Amino acid sequence: MHRTAKVAGALLLIATAVHAQQQAPPPGGGRGAAAGTAGQGGRQGGRGPVRPECLMPALPAAECNTPPGINWASPALPDGPIDVESAVPQHRNLRVVVMARLAQPWSLAFLPDGAMLVTERGGQLRVIRNGVLDPKPVDGVPQVRAAGLQGLMDVVLHPRFSENRWVYLSYHKPVPARSAAGTVPAATNAGAVQPQTPTPQMEGETTIARGTWNGTALVTVQDIFRSGAAGTESSRMAFGRDGMLYMSISAAGTGPDVMRSADPNDYAGKTVRLRDDGTIPPDNPFVNTPGYKPGIYTLGHRNGHSMAMNPETGDMWVTEQGPNGGDEVNVLKPGANYGWPYVSYGRSYMGPRISEGPWREGMEAPAVVWVPSIAVTGATFYTGDVFAGWKRNLFVGGLREGETPRTGHMQRIEFNERWEEIRREPLLRELKQRIRDVRQGPDGLLYLLTAEAQGALLRLEPGASK
User: Fold this and answer.
1) Which of 45, 68, 406, 443 has the smallest count of CB within 10 Å of its CB?
2) How far apart are alpha carbons 374 and 326 in whole angstroms?
3) What does pTM read for this prediction?
4) What is the pLDDT of residues 206-249, one digit of tens each?
């Protein structure tokens, strides 16, 4: 058995006991009492009404009584170009161009003809041609459950897209909640409320769909992988050098459901490795291990917001949001356990440390850590020639720093020849925007998506010399 499987097996008794407690509906309405809002049990991003099992959390990571956040909307972006700067003299003067306005954009992919596909979390796939957003959403997207950190997530092209035209979407498929159905009042024409009629409560299951791009729409769309894990959060995908499709499946960030990340019989809080048709490769690390989901590649994750392949090593790098501090970049190793919810550099939202030490024998340490958290999101390695001084740098997005609004930005991280961090630079702070994704375009420029209800696609390019 893999050494991390032994550690996970030792922790399985704890996770299984807590997981069984989660499945039993607690007094007062249970899991579905607040359904219909966001995430599992109606909690938005892991926060919301106190559940009975929150009164005595099994671990600091399972806290529920979190304070309300500070809300302050990001300022509107101007239509014209915005001048910004970098500390690197070679790329000191930069310019941000607002290319398109979108609603909660999440991810983008570049088509060979120069067009771009952009997902909106609400369930729409958009296409941008010659820098212009098509007002009509792309047809063929499956029905999506969009609430909290659920919705239409990533979009990825097959490595041989020019041959097969395959486009992959990760999304939250609407499925009946595991709790009892709720009720809604039925109104008559006169406005009188009749006896309540049962209506099924729904939650989202992390799913991968594959369709064929015909130039204007997706056709022959079908689900190729259903995780069976509902109440999950963000997901990202990428193809590896081995031709396999990798995806992160995020567990709830706080509350009792954090224990799912340590449960090997649950895809929540894991990364998975699949063939391009969604089936399980026979050489996956746990494919023949009893009690483990066969698609699991790594486990012990919290909330994975990127899946980027290191162009030199071929390793998959995943950005992972911690709680109050403890954001991470993790380098995926087959069968490895990354420790959540048992170890972290972060603190709970109420202040206590998640763990006395940030590392434990048999668990992988992160490659990069943020304290305080920047709510790290999408990432890309820069390999182009336009910004030659940025080659081998990792660019990541951030939603906000230290739980404070209007502090979203992008960071540039430099590494030595052994991929050890030597410098990081915050960029685009002056925009005061939540950054959801960062991608390198085929033209060598950087493209960013802002995580706003009135979001935008941005292009970062060289500015005028001063």
Assistant:
1) 68
2) 9
3) 0.87
4) 999 999 999 999 999 999 999 999 999 999 999 999 999 999 99
